[in-house]
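Narrative of accomplishments. A recurring question from our advisory board has been how the design workflow behaves on a single, concrete structure rather than in aggregate. To address it, we present the structure tokens for one chain from the evaluation set, followed by the sequence designed for it. No filtering or post-editing was applied between the two.
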């Protein structure tokens, strides 16, 4: 949430055909209207501070970086299918490319799940009309979004193209995780 501004400008610096008018003030967050289907998920686990954590597809859509979808091992090549309730024009997509949560156990030791699990460093967004947009991701637990040329679609497929090795240390886990996805556009 609240990043203080979206950094969009009224002109396209590369001079390509632009849809900046549609991706600007008229765009709205569509994430909560979507449903997600994932290629399985890791089983629930006991958190280091107690309680249970689940790693289901719905966690991708809850705008809570402390929850995540997670699957065992290297998920390179796997696809997550996001479905909107109706045909919609998408102008911006993004994701939190790992498990963004930091937890503490009873002894006060920190577990940085973002750096312990595998993270996605390259992904492709595919739309109904076969448009495909690649996104290169930084090693950063914040939401990373990109503007795209307007595309009208009902389904968005997120293909994981490149995934890191697991981290090291006490938070090391051989799971690929994503905390959130973000979809913006106009209806």
């Amino acid at each position: 949430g609240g990043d203080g501004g979206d950094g969009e400008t009224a002109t396209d610096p590369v001079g390509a055909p632009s849809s900046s008018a549609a991706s600007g003030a008229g765009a709205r967050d569509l994430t909560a209207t979507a449903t997600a289907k994932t290629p399985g998920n890791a089983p629930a686990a006991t958190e280091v501070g107690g309680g249970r954590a689940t790693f289901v597809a719905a966690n991708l859509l809850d705008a809570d970086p402390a929850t995540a979808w997670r699957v065992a091992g290297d998920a390179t090549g796997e696809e997550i299918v996001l479905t909107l309730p109706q045909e919609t024009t998408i102008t911006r997509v993004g994701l939190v490319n790992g498990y963004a949560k930091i937890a503490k156990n009873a002894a006060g030791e920190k577990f940085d799940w973002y750096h312990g699990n595998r993270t996605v460093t390259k992904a492709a967004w595919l739309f109904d009309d076969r448009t495909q947009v690649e996104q290169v991701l930084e090693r950063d637990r914040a939401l990373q979004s990109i503007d795209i040329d307007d595309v009208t679609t009902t389904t968005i497929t997120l293909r994981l193209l490149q995934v890191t090795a697991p981290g090291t240390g006490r938070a090391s886990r051989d799971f690929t995780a994503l905390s959130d996805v973000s979809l913006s556009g106009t209806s």
